[in-house]
Amino acid sequence: MTDTKVPPPVLRVTDLQVHYAVRQGLQNRTLKAVDGVSLSLRPGECLGLVGESGCGKSSLAQAIMGITTPTSGRVEIDGVTADPGQRIGGLARARAIQMVFQDPYSSLNPRMTIRQTLSAPLHLHKLCPTGDVEDRIRALLGRVGLEPDAADRYPHAFSGGQRQRLCIARALVVEPRILVCDEPVSALDVSIRAQIINLLLRLKDELGLALLMISHDLGVVEHMSDRIAVMYLGRFVEEGRWDQVLSQPAHPYTRALLASVPGMQKTGAGRLRMTGEAPSALRPPPGCAFHPRCAVAVGACRSGEGPGIAQLAQGHQARCHLLDEKVTA
Length: 329
Ligand code: SF4
Known about the structure:
- The chain is an alpha/beta fold.
- The protein is built from 9 helices and 12 strands.
- It is globular and about 70 Å long.
- Iron/sulfur cluster binds near residues 301, 307 and 320.
């Protein structure tokens, strides 16, 4: 297979930073929610983004969407670049990239029927003649596994899983190139999570969607992702193909995450544990930000700027001082 057949990225993020000025007592501090993240995503590809709560996943998603203003860096969507420090806006961008949120209960307007919810973006973007709107809505409902008469009902008439299907339909109605899914199954009953994951996978393949799948649960992204990025305190600490990250995890944080999910310890290396909670992004530790929790930290980990990104294999990279050594617990 040659690279010439690989489509160009539809989303390219370069050195993105999202910093907030925070007043703490008498001191002004900077909260680095996202601190120099780069990624790219091709049509039909799924990038799984994992990390604990507060690591910056949602801040990154919001900056990519243009919901918040990046401090610096570049977001390029379908070949169009937003200037550094500016919000990403405009109807064209709103069409190209859509988001599915965690809570399907608060994501739909309870006073609008599903027909009103789905037809509003069609009218706003002038995507089809008025006479074709009904057919578009029926086809879309069928695509996400709902009956056509769902269009006449209000959100309260649906279960959690059905509402998430409706949220996905609303995101797809403008025919986006990129779908950002922020914990799309974590608020759902365990029994229907797999249905929503399978639906997203099917839509990705059928429509050639680029999926950015955000989850705190490695078990969720395992089933969906072509590549996985692991985020800790605003930075990617490991990124690679799903098989590289899951079978040959290099970063102690990745290994600890894997060890915490039953049945996911695919590596032959020993289990690594981490201790305590993630520190506040307002007061990141010196050196490697993971060192207070790392089971294999050495002296060099506790001071300085912290490790840079190192290439381990093609497409597989991580940020740790001990990558050249065998990391054992
Ligand atoms: Fe652990 Fe040191 Fe590697 Fe950080 S740099 S992950 S503290 S071994």
